[in-house]
Amino acid sequence: MISVIIPTYNRVETIKRSIRSVLNQTYSDLECIVVDDGSTDNTADIVQSINDDRLRYYKLDHNSGACVARNKGIELAVGEYIAFQDSDDEWDSDKLRCQLQKLNMVDADVCICRKRVINEKTGATMFSHKGMDEGFISKKTLYKGTLSTQLLFAKSEVFKNICFDEKVKKFQDYEWGIRACELYTFYFIPDVLVTQFLQSDSITVRGWDDHEVDKDTFNYFIEKYENRYKKDKDLKIALLRHKIRSDTTSNVNSVDSCKEVFDLTLSARDLVILIAAKLGLLKLLYATKRRIDNSYWCCVFDCASK
Asked: I need a labelling partner for 271 at 20 to 30 A (CA). Which of 63, 92, 218, 263 fits?
């Protein structure tokens, strides 16, 4: 059996679409666990109106955050495998079958796929993980930022052993991956099996310009992984690069961090970033890239292939 966990909060307009895309999977031996993170709308009525014995509904006492809801779902899950769905997204009908088949075929612990991202305001469509080839994912690639919870499919033991850090308000999937890749293998398939709908009130969209949270989050990561950070050069470079972006967009001087990265890589790219930081042009450089890529999110996920 596969346990599919859907954390939700005030998603009365989209939760039915999300649940239906899970229940309509070609692989039908599943349970769908909706963990309501204290919704104040009619989410409960919508969920409970769906007549399917595989659907389970659990409501938290108060709004506690997505990581708390996900961890509760993990606690409730009884399947041999666990996958996550977002309450405003939609799955391809073959998602679970494809990922289960591939996971067993290559003997991996975690499988991720690609997703299409539709901006419901503009109608623009983007795709994650451009140029990334099928295969096992190195730690170095994971550190750059390749994970998104609704793409994850894993053996149950992976999530039972490594839950989400409930202190993290942003980039929770990224932080989870840092810990998980120490013990488990990750495999990527290039199939586009998830459709993400970007809405004005979605966590992804609201988070794009929350630069202070970005800054605090990566400072927390660097502090949390201080010991590994000293031994793992790739993790150090990745976290510093994320910190440089978040510090720069928060108007925090990042020259020292830029120099630290350049000293580690001696790459032309990092030399350009260091020079831009010294000239006070780094924020403009990031803003230009964001306009070209159409969103900060796209910058993050396309970097996996670079």
From this structure: 218
297 vs 209: CA distance, rounded Å? 11
Please choose, from the candidates 297, 71, 60, the residue with its C-alpha nearest in 3D space to the C-alpha of residue 167. 71
Q: Is the dihedral of CA 232, 237, 238, 239 positive or negative?
A: positive
Cα separation values, 234 from 217, 229, 237, 240, 298, Å: 19, 8, 5, 10, 22
More confident residue, 299 or 14: 14
The answer to whether 196 and 115 are in contact (CB under 8 A) is yes
Q: How many residues comprise the chain?
A: 306
- Does residue 114 sit in helix, strand or coil? strand
Average pLDDT estimate for 231-260: 92
The distance of Cα 239 from the centroid of its chain, to the nearest Å, equals: 16
Task: Using DSSP bridges, classify how beta strands 110-119 and 125-127 pair: parallel, antiparallel or unpaired.
Answer: antiparallel
Residue 57 confidence (pLDDT) above 60: yes
